[in-house]
Amino acid sequence: MSHTSERTGATRALVVDDERPIRLLMEKELPRAGYTVTCVGSGEEALEQLRAREFDVVLLDLKMPGIGGMETLRRIRGSGTTAEIVILTGHPDVESAINAMKLGAYDYLTKPFKLSELEEVLRRAAERKRLRQENTALRRMVAQREPAPIMVGRSPAISSLLATVERIAPSEANILIQGESGTGKSLVAKAIHAASPRASGPFLVINCSGFQDPLLESELFGHEKGAFTGAVGVKQGLFEVADGGTLLLDEVGEMSPAMQAKLLQVLDTKELRRVGGTRVHRVDVRIVAATNKDLAQEVRTGRFREDLYYRLNVVSLTVPSLRERKEDVSLLIEHFLRQFRVTGQKAKIVSPEAIPSLVDYPWPGNVRELANTIERLLILSSGDVIGLEDLPP
């Protein structure tokens, strides 16, 4: 059961605590300080409230029955809300509060606390949210000067995907993108980055299947001079270079068990040591992982670590195959015809007779195969119109 005290234009606070005296105190005192307050007694109720409305600040107790405060925090951070989270904890549990901050909480208060302390931390949390919103708006204004990542299509499948991208981009949650090869997983990752508060930071990509372990470790975490044969100087890894931005781990399902363990350690601690080094480097990177494998099945067969799977899979997206969005094929054809015209290809059109054959083809290589096919047809067809006779058998 929730209780809300409304104040027009006030900072919106959600209090999540199973102790009724705490909730009554918040309902009484916070409106006097200018807050609209909603109080709930469980993590489940908190998640329901966050799905229903926007909040500026969440006051979250760590020790609660049901799903518990730490799990509630993880789910809130994965929900796409931009609310700042302040942890409420007892003195013996300060270490858990610090761990909660590593998961994205803004600050913590130990019980019992003074009202002045509560008001101060809430004021700072609300101010931080306001500044983040202003920064996001400024980044989007700047981003409008450059082409945004294009996801072409109007099908229900792609519309649902784009709506999910818009909803989750503002969060700090790690994201797992699944889908067949050629569906555009990296484009989805780039769109998430471009719409996130990290948009002004780096967006870096590494294909995890393209390196043996020693090289992959060096690429991700860097190395010190003399760490191995050929290490003639110090090198920053992608985690350090991407600090403040987003790192896409493409084909993450191809990682060896040893590399999975090292990646998990960095994700857990947000710290790394370069290969051959002893100094600890703090990193602030949002991870987007992509795979064409069924990672849940890989976990069941023991080929992928379960703990790493859950660390990466805070929010999951599946990019539909092209055969699941046939109504987008004609739009994509027009898109690629324009795209290749810009790169110097002769302007051509596809005849109305040829379109149904292209739409009905199953496209096992998905959007990538369609793009390659259109480019090949532009090069090989002799006239200004690509007809049925020009299509591959």
Automatic annotation (TrEMBL):
Nucleotide-binding among keywords: yes
Which keywords does the record carry? ATP-binding, DNA-binding, Nucleotide-binding, Phosphoprotein, Transcription, Transcription regulation
Question: Which processes are annotated in GO (biological process)?
Answer: phosphorelay signal transduction system; regulation of DNA-templated transcription
List the Gene Ontology MF annotations in alphabetical order.
ATP binding; DNA binding
SUPFAM superfamilies found in the cross-reference section: CheY-like, P-loop containing nucleoside triphosphate hydrolases
Q: Which InterPro entries match?
A: AAA+_ATPase (IPR003593), AAA_lid_NorR (IPR058031), CheY-like_superfamily (IPR011006), P-loop_NTPase (IPR027417), Sig_transdc_resp-reg_receiver (IPR001789), Sigma_54_int (IPR002078), Sigma_54_int_dom_ATP-bd_1 (IPR025662), Sigma_54_int_dom_ATP-bd_2 (IPR025943)
Q: Secreted: is it a keyword of this entry?
A: no
Residues annotated as domain Response regulatory: 12-126
Q: Which Pfam families match?
A: AAA_lid_14, Response_reg, Sigma54_activat
Source taxon at top rank = Bacteria
Residues that the record marks as modified (4-aspartylphosphate) are 61
Signal sequence, start to end: none
Task: Show where the Sigma-54 factor interaction domain sits.
Answer: 151-379
Q: What is this protein called?
A: Sigma-54 dependent transcriptional regulator
Q: Which organism is it from?
A: Candidatus Methylomirabilis tolerans
